Amino acid sequence: MATPLSADKLLKALRDEGVEVVEYKSWRTHNRNSAGPWGPVHGVMIHHTVTSGTDSSVALCYNGRSDLPGPLCHGVIAKDGTVHLVGHGRANHAGRGDGDVLAAVIAERGLPADNEADTDGNTHFYGFECVNLGDNKDPWPAAQVEAIVRASAALCRAHGWGKDGDTSVIGHLEWQPGKIDPRGPGITMGGVRSRVAERLRHAASWSPDNDQEDEEGDIVPDRTLFTTNAYVRTIKPDTWTTLHFNRQYTGGKWVDREPQASVLFGSVYYTLSVGVHVKGLKRGQEFQMRIAEYREASDGSFVRELTMPINSPVHDDGDSHFTYTWTGHISSVRKGRLRVEVKQFTDVDLTVESARVEALHWPV
């Protein structure tokens, strides 16, 4: 159970994360606490304002509308990345949403479809309204998205959320049936979450453009390991199969995570080394490995965008351990994610006994 941050702690958390903050009017005491409880809090919700202009959007979110009293969020994130604090306490931003989604946020696991409106979200979520028309044409500037990432990470860090990959940050469209925000060129919630998770692997002062340099001035890459740890995978004949990994080493320790396919998110330069242990092959039988890059589609699904060259060794005998290494980059335009895929050409199912990935990665 997480008690909401005090106004002072909220402000400090944002500034420690490098967020430029503007305190608007009497935001510290401006709330809807008389209408219902505020807390326990479990996550951060992102919205778009369906307005343009910073001053008018901030005023609207502070004052509210005739049919919906303010504050309409806790902070308004402008196009230039400035966060304007407009409320502290219960705010009219989330409305009623899906209790199954809230349960997933609390458990920090994958989000189910939002098909019910049975739970009061204003009690449980911090809310940020972001200045955007929401017409799927108005672009999201990089500075604004970076502020969303930093503000979300600040709250996750303060509460200890999202240490193994983050589902504590959701969009309004993932909470309440019929909602579409946030949307538009330059933002996806999957992209925001992956960047929040990356920030949480570093100190609050970290920035992608100030990574540590060695004595010769070269950037020292981050190193992340992924393993299956007894999570076995069956490979059917003549079919590309994506491996899943349920253990991750980062920040000096191993942590469990829900089995996930993606092992690295953009935008990064990377060297990926993969090792796979397979049982069931006979002498002369072929086993293939490759790395594939996926991008997030507008409907939230993932589509294979690129495949790297195939490594296709022929088995000698006994248990089989195959390796694959590839160096490349995921561009800021594609904002992709990397997965490991394998394929075999026997007439029976085979089993991947274990798999391991070592990723060295630098920001693009």
TrEMBL record:
One of its GO terms (molecular function) is N-acetylmuramoyl-L-alanine amidase activity. Residues 27-183 form the N-acetylmuramoyl-L-alanine amidase domain. One of its GO terms (biological process) is peptidoglycan catabolic process. This is N-acetylmuramoyl-L-alanine amidase. Transmembrane segments: none annotated. It comes from the Bacteria. SUPFAM superfamilies: N-acetylmuramoyl-L-alanine amidase-like. Pfam families: Amidase_2.
